[in-house]
């Protein structure tokens, strides 16, 4: 099934892995959100590069492809990052990531996770060879999934955990595209909407309840708000 | 035979030129006219005509530092292919020799710095030791990635087989090249890691170790660092440009164009960035190891798939 643009797909998948590592390496929450958004852009382009030609041959394939690409782009690269940056700005929390494991050690963990997923893919790939149109998609998806889980577990504040959750979602999508070739349109849009709602809700919680141990700081800001409205 | 002569001439004569290109580009960014392109050669000539001053507290280690440093760098330069696809000193496993020749030169530079008994130089040596230990895994990942793609534990054939037909490099090559850029900046004490133009001993790494050297010794050190930049730059050029290492005049022209591009790249990085805080440097350098490891993994996986 060589229906896509293999070199473009390889570049995109390597970009996904690099962004994973960047997300682990940077200490700023805003930078993490932006990297996540960039992953969303890469994501929107993936279906085109992996199975673009096959989809275009379908009747209605163009619509399917255009709809998935544009909706993925809109939600993952515009709406969700905007909501999260908004939450960061208005929650008054620290802009830096607070984590249990230090940045250096996290980087090493990330590389180990990438290595593990390459190892697993090498073992599993033989049985999946028929359906996999881009050989790097499985390890890229798996490492994104694992790194996302690690980020979610490692983050101390709600926002860094959401970022981990989002990275995990990205990984699931990349893997799904490898294993299934293409999702049914409705499933894809439904999942996207689910992610959006989850992120919106958590963003709301973060702004309303404040993240973790920032109570004192946040209480001060809330009081200011009350005075403003009164 | 002509390839061998051309390699030697390129290795011995060209390196200071690209330091000149680098400094000229930096001057252009700063809005200055800058020193002439050949200024590094004039500097070397001036230093070689001077005498040396040695402190009474130093021993032979201090005097051997610059000489061994230059000799090991030049030997490492014989292992990396410059003009031809095959280097004069190519043998099975020469990548390991390459990495440790750089290490040997660094060891003697640090030993000479410690030999002076100056506390500042000791501090510089300590930092150099810490950071170079962090660079090494990255360098080895890159070398391993190149060997893996060549199927031989030698630098020559590794280079020539890394290029995808059609001229577009595989993303693994791009990632490995990025890691190599970080290693190049760190190995040559360039800006995000160390500032070669600084005058504050507290923040220096490499420069503080050579403060006590004068005259011909300093010339050897400056020449050696130019050669080091040239040699690692050549690795980068061969990694990125598919038609390099063609041999003869073409190889030389491509090499010179590529080295100029590397010098301009380093100058742009130096002009656009500030030096990282000392605490952030390890993270930057570990980045090279991470990228190198990922490049290695991708190449390995593709080889099996």
Low-confidence stretches of chain B: none
Helical content of chain A stands at over 70%
Oligomer classification? heterodimer
Q: What kind of sheet is the major sheet of chain B? A: none
Distance between the termini of chain A: 65 Å
Number of strand segments of chain B? 0
Topology:
The complex is a heterodimer of chains A (230) and B (305).
Chain A lengths: L5 H20 L3 H29 L3 H31 L11 H26 L8 H18 L3 H23 L4 H25 L5 H15 L1
Helix pairs in contact in A: 1-2, 1-4, 1-5, 2-3, 2-6, 3-7, 4-5, 5-6, 6-7
Chain B lengths: L1 H12 L1 H15 L9 H11 L10 H20 L14 H22 L3 H32 L4 H6 L10 H17 L18 H4 L5 H26 L7 H25 L8 H24 L1
Helix pairs in contact in B: 2-10, 2-11, 3-10, 4-5, 4-10, 5-6, 6-8, 6-12, 8-10, 8-12, 10-11
What does this structure look like?
The complex is a heterodimer of chains A (230) and B (305). Chain A has 230 residues and is mainly alpha-helical. Chain A has one domain (6-229). Chain A is 81% helix and 0% strand. Chain A is built from 8 helices and no strands. The radius of gyration of chain A is 19 Å and the shape is globular. Chain B is mainly alpha-helical and 305 residues long. Chain B has one domain. Chain B has helices spanning 2-13, 15-29, 39-49, 60-79, 94-115, 119-150, 155-160, 171-187, 206-209, 215-240, 248-272, 281-304. In chain B, α4 (60-79) runs antiparallel to α5, α6 (119-150) runs antiparallel to α8 and α10 (215-240) packs across α11. Chain B is globular, with a radius of gyration of 19 Å. Chain B starts with a helix and ends with a helix. The mean pLDDT of chain B is 88. Classes of the chains: A mainly alpha (230), B mainly alpha (305). The interface between A and B is medium-sized, with 25 and 23 residues.
């Amino acid at each position: 099934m060589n229906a896509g643009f293999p070199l473009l797909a390889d570049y995109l998948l390597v970009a996904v892995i690099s962004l994973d590592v960047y997300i682990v390496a940077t200490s700023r929450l805003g930078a993490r959100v932006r990297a996540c958004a960039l992953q969303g852009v890469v994501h929107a382009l993936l279906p085109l590069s992996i199975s673009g030609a096959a989809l275009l041959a379908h009747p209605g394939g163009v619509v399917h492809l255009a709809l998935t690409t544009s909706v993925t782009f809109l939600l993952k690269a515009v709406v969700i990052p905007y909501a999260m940056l908004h939450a960061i700005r208005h929650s008054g929390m620290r802009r830096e990531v607070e984590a249990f494991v230090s940045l250096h050690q996290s980087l090493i963990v990330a590389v180990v996770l990438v290595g593990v997923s390459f190892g697993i893919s090498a073992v599993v790939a033989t049985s999946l060879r028929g359906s996999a149109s881009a050989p790097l998609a499985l390890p890229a998806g798996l490492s994104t999934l694992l790194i996302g889980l690690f980020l979610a577990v490692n983050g101390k504040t709600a926002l860094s955990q959401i970022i981990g959750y989002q990275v995990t979602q990205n990984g699931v999508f990349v893997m799904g595209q490898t294993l299934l070739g293409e999702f049914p349109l409705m499933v894809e849009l439904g999942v996207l909407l689910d992610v959006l709602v989850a992120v919106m809700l958590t963003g709301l919680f973060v702004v309303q309840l404040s993240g973790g141990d920032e109570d004192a700081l946040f209480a001060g800001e809330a009081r200011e708000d009350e005075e403003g409205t009164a | 035979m002509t390839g061998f002569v051309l390699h030697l001439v390129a290795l011995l004569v060209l390196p200071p030129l690209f330091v000149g290109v680098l400094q000229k580009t930096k001057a252009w960014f700063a809005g200055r006219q800058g020193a002439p392109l050949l200024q590094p050669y004039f500097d070397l000539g001036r230093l070689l005509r001077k005498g040396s001053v040695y402190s009474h507290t130093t021993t032979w280690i201090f005097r051997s530092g610059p000489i061994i440093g230059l000799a090991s760098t030049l030997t490492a330069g014989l292992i990396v292919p410059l003009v031809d696809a095959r280097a004069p000193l190519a043998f099975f496993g020469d990548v390991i020799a390459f990495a440790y020749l750089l290490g040997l030169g660094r060891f003697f530079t640090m030993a000479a710095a410690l030999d002076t008994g100056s506390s500042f130089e000791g501090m510089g040596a300590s930092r150099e030791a810490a950071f170079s230990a962090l660079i090494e895994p990255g360098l080895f990942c890159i070398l391993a990635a190149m060997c893996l793609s060549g199927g031989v534990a030698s630098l020559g054939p590794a280079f020539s087989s890394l290029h995808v037909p059609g001229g577009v490099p595989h993303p693994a090559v791009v990632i490995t090249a990025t890691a190599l850029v970080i290693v190049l900046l760190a190995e040559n004490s360039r800006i995000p890691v160390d500032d070669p133009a600084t005058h504050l001993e507290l923040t220096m790494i490499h420069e503080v170790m050579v403060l006590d050297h004068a005259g011909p010794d300093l010339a050897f050190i400056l020449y050696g660092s130019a050669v080091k930049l040239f040699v690692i730059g050549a690795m980068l050029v061969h990694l990125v440009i598919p038609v390099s290492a063609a041999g003869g005049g073409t190889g030389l022209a491509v090499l010179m164009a590529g080295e100029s591009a590397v010098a301009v790249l380093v100058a742009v990085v130096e002009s656009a960035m500030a030096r990282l805080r000392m605490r952030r440097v390890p993270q930057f350098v570990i980045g090279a190891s991470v990228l190198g490891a990922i490049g290695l993994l991708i190449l390995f996986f593709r080889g099996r798939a």
